[in-house]
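ok so I'm stuck.
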Amino acid sequence: MKKLVVSLGILILSLPGTVFAHEGHDKTPGVGSAPHGVGIKGTEQLYIELVNETGGIKIYPLTHDLAAVPLKDVSLEATATFPKKPKAEPVVFTQAEDHFLAKVDGKGAYRYSLDLTVTYKGKKEKMKFQVEPQG
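replied:
not stuck anymore, here's the structure
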């Protein structure tokens, strides 16, 4: 009985710490909601928003204030790595209105990795996205 009381006491005392241990970890400091409804990743100079659509992806370069960056000021290089494929395949982006567009054939994969190199103001920064192709 004494062991049970001690165990319950320890459990009760540890609960408040575990309840709040993960508070706030679901948000990146300084990031608001993504303008196109999808999550964004940051670099030192930019945010990059990836929108996954049927047959391809869109990339929106954004300032840290979530304003659109002129596409002429940004260049992208990317490769896609598919499960069960030994080599990464190049992904070619074209410029559309306010975003970059790439046609990506998911090759029947449930998920693939997109390795992206973003060049802005002469500085190259790398990031990786996990993409789940849309039907």
